[in-house]
Amino acid sequence: MPGLLEGKVALITGSARGMGEAEARLFVAEGARVVIADVLDEQGEALANSLGENAIYRHLDVADESNWQSVIADIEETFGGLDILVNNAAILRFSAFADTSLEDYMQVLSINQVGTFLGTRSVIEPMKKRGGGAIVNISSVDGMKGSAGLVSYASSKWAVRGMTKVAAAELGPHGIRVNSVHPGGIQTAMTPSPEESPQVAEFVSRLPLPRIGQSVDVARTVLFLASEQSAYTTGCEFPVDGGYVNCRALPGA
What we know:
Its EC number is 1.1.1.-. It comes from Marinobacterium aestuariivivens. GO terms for molecular function: oxidoreductase activity. Strand 1 (about 10-15), helix 1 (about 20-30) and strand 2 (about 35-40) form a beta-alpha-beta unit. About 40% of the residues lie in helices and about 15% in strands. By secondary structure, the chain is α/β, with parallel strands linked by helices. The protein has a seven-stranded parallel β-sheet with strand order 3-2-1-4-5-6-7, with helices on both faces. It is globular. It has one domain (about 10-240): Rossmann fold (3-Layer(aba) Sandwich).
């Protein structure tokens, strides 16, 4: 039985580890040819080699416009086109609003926000040539609310959410769907585990689904949005957060 992405070509940024790695593994398992793009060259190459002939690694600094141009040209030459883009690359910085320097603020925006803008713009023409495509932007639950200490991160993730809706409106007539995924409470290299942090353990205990999320939880939602299973869905946001944003568990439940 063919996979959900059989015959598709996908580019996933920031996919050498974490959520991007889980997405790459799942996409390959579902029949896609996957371009793993990151600045972590050793990890990216190792992952591509482990996934076999349907995965390749390419160095990509998502904040570099010329780097996007060269990688997209390479993909078109290697695979003949591109069907799916997952804008996953991001960084996280904690600091109080008053203590956040312009340099630190702009560094987060350059990767999280500008990188998503450049990536989306870069794939429009290649996807038009294929008669359509799917773009999945990884935002965050902090793109749906505000949290102290996250002014740069939240600003960038709200921007990704808004950018998704603009792109969906403009690109829908070309058969290109654009949606955003909003992870929260996911175990990655950027977040401590409940065992490592009492604060994280307390947070998880109050979720309607009281467990720490795993990268594969996000990857499965991304797969749905990248596949024809969501063929009539665009411009939407999908929290993957154990119910954190939209509901609360009963006290003592």
